[in-house]
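Q: Could you fold this chain for me?
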Amino acid sequence: MNHEEFAQLVQDRYAWTKSLKSEMSNVLVGQDQLVDRLIIGLLSNGHIILEGVPGLAKTLAINSLAGCLDTGFSRIQFTPDLLPADLLGTMIYNPQEMSFSSKLGPIFSNLILADEINRAPAKVQSALLEAMQEKQVTIGDTSYPLPDPFLVLATQNPIDQEGTYQLPEAQLDRFLLKVHVDYPSKQDELTILDRLATSAKVPTTKKVISADEVKECRSIVNNIYIDSAIKEYIVELVHTTRRPGKVDPGLAPLIRSGASPRATINLALASKASAFMAGRSFVTPQDIKDLAPDVFRHRILLSYEAEAENVTTDEIIQRILKRVVVP
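A: Sure. Below is the predicted structure, expressed as structure tokens.
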């Protein structure tokens, strides 16, 4: 397939992303970026961690997405007494047959909302993250593959730290994106009030695309073209997070540790998905700049000096984006 034919294929196949966003807008108000990132996660076969205060429609977003895809949806509330078996499943003994059988847990669904993931102990978080990485769960002597597509949307509350367990940076690194969900604008909140200040049933979404069609679109996304200059731009951005003093001496004391090689891979994957959503068969530098904050946010560790000066990770990322030359 030549470039013109592939470009036409992208034009023919990307339209469902617009239909999906339009359908979800009937339920969600003012969360366009969140919806975009969910679609990018689907197309990139990656997971997303959301940080935002309660009440910002995080649960509603993934439930609405499940309705658009006609796939399974599980909401798992993480609590301090949760056990790995509550998540993955366990062996059940049948006294009549004198044998054990596997009882699969709620993780065996397509879309998983891991609500307040940092409220569960480390062993539960590790069980979830291992399943995300391996795409399978072993119960007893048998390994069970997880459904495809399989997308985990984990949430954590940034303001309530009592009774929480901080996710280790090495585990956070397994998430494709970390997205900040902010309060809606005044106009959006008026729309929410008009739409939801009622005892009537909340509207639901209808099917837009099948899970099989999403998997077919992934193969198209994998073939989106990234120019060598843009690949070098991605690598330069990642390396700058590790050695920021090369472009800005003032950044050197603010970063304790830079992004891992997963950041390089995930930024390329996410930018391909972003290009597909725009109907393009190639990645532009703007795709990289738009997604860099979400890819780097949970991979750059701030120094004590940065924390003392109240410098945020997002501010550091923006300074890096301004200093690194765009191809």
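A (continued): The chain has two domains: 15-196+204-215, 224-323.
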